[in-house]
Amino acid sequence: MVTKSKYNPPDMGRLREIVGHERVSDSMDDLTVSGLDIYPAGEMKLRDGKVDHRPDCVVWPESVDEVSAIIKLANETL
């Protein structure tokens, strides 16, 4: 069962301010791949079109400061 997220699309702009536009994505390809585990069961679900959950967005931080700022944002918005 997929649960409703507390994600708010305007938060994506704030994430982009933290890490840069190119390191935040909500493309279906990135969401699907990031929502799978690396084990064969994840690949089988994808092949069968049965992805249980996709993240709301994907962020690729490159520093401890960026991770810290993302966690701070999450704590403010959840």
Main beta-sheet strand count, sense and barrel state: 2 strands, antiparallel
Pattern of helices and strands: HEHHEH
**Could you tell me the mean pLDDT?**
82
Envelope shape: elongated
Q: So how many helices?
A: 4
Number of strands: 2
What is the alpha-carbon Rg in Å?
Answer: 14 Å
SS-derived structural category: mainly alpha
Largest sheet, order of strands side by side?
A: 1-2
Low-pLDDT segments: none
Q: What fraction strand?
A: 5-15%
Fraction in helix: 40-55%
| Through-space gap between termini | 21 Å
Task: Sum up the structure in keywords.
78 residues, mainly alpha, two-stranded antiparallel ribbon, 4 helices, 50% helix, elongated
Please give a structural write-up.
This protein has 78 residues and is mainly α. It is 50% helix and 5% strand. The chain contains 4 helices and 2 strands, in the order αβααβα. The chain has helices at 10-19, 28-34, 40-47, 64-77; strands spanning 24-25, 58-59. It has a two-stranded antiparallel ribbon with strand order 1-2.
List the helices and strands and how they pair.
Elements: H1 10-19, E1 24-25, H2 28-34, H3 40-47, E2 58-59, H4 64-77
Please outline what is shown here.
By secondary structure, the protein is mostly helical.
